[in-house]
C-alpha cells in the first residue's frame, strides 16, 4: 500500500502584478493547498512561494519591494526554501531589465539583462515549444513537442552564470525561439522560473506545476 503524500501549502504572492486567481486555480488543480497573500509570515512559512508577474519590469519591482517581496524571496532562497517565478516574475530574478531605454535593477539572483525581444511580431503571444535539458525535472513526463502559452515582449536572451564549484549543481536552462532564442525556464536548486504561463498552458502546464509541487 503506497503512502499518502501530504498536501503542500503554497502561497501565491500578491503584490499587485500577477494573475493570482488563475495561478491559484492551477495549483489547486494539481493538489496544492493554496493561499493568495502578501503576509510576511505566511509567505515565509509556506512549503512553496509562487511569484507571478505581468506588466512592466520596473513597476513589478516597485510593487515587490513595497510588499517586502524582495526580502522574502532572498530569505527563502538563502534557506533553500522553494520559490517559483512566472513571466515577469521570472524576469525580475535577473540582474536588470531595460524597457524603453529605462534600466531597472532586478533581484540579481542571476546575472544578465532582460531586454526587448527582437522578432517580426511582438508581443510573443500564443503557444510555443521549448528546448529543455534531457535531465530536466521541471519538464519530466512531458514530450519534446509539448506547447506552452507565452505573452511577453521582453526576455533574457543570454545565460552567463558559470558554476565553477564541482559540488554545486549547474542550473538547468530551457530555451524557446520567437524571432530569436531566449530563456524560457530555469531550474536553479530551490529557485524555478518560467517565461511562459504554466497556469494557462493546459495539461502541459499542470504537469510542470505537479513536478514543482513534488519538490516541495
UniProtKB/TrEMBL annotation:
Function per UniProt: IGPS catalyzes the conversion of PRFAR and glutamine to IGP, AICAR and glutamate. The HisH subunit catalyzes the hydrolysis of glutamine to glutamate and ammonia as part of the synthesis of IGP and AICAR. The resulting ammonia molecule is channeled to the active site of HisF.
Subunit-level organization: Heterodimer of HisH and HisF.
Biochemical pathway: Amino-acid biosynthesis; L-histidine biosynthesis; L-histidine from 5-phospho-alpha-D-ribose 1-diphosphate: step 5/9
Name of the protein: Imidazole glycerol phosphate synthase subunit HisH
Superkingdom of origin: Bacteria
Coiled coil: none
Keyword Magnesium part of the UniProt annotation: no
UniProt cross-references to InterPro entries, sorted A to Z: Class_I_gatase-like, GATASE, Imidazole-glycPsynth_HisH
Entry annotation: catalytic residues: 87 (nucleophile), 197, 199
Domain Glutamine amidotransferase: 11-211
Entry keyword set: Amino-acid biosynthesis, Cytoplasm, Glutamine amidotransferase, Histidine biosynthesis, Hydrolase, Lyase
Location in or out of the cell: Cytoplasm
SUPFAM superfamilies associated with the record: Class I glutamine amidotransferase-like
PANTHER family according to UniProt: IMIDAZOLE GLYCEROL PHOSPHATE SYNTHASE SUBUNIT HISH
Pfam family, one: GATase
Reaction catalysed by this enzyme: L-glutamine + H2O = L-glutamate + NH4(+); 5-[(5-phospho-1-deoxy-D-ribulos-1-ylimino)methylamino]-1-(5-phospho-beta-D-ribosyl)imidazole-4-carboxamide + L-glutamine = D-erythro-1-(imidazol-4-yl)glycerol 3-phosphate + 5-amino-1-(5-phospho-beta-D-ribosyl)imidazole-4-carboxamide + L-glutamate + H(+)
EC number: 4.3.2.10, 3.5.1.2
Membrane-spanning segments: none
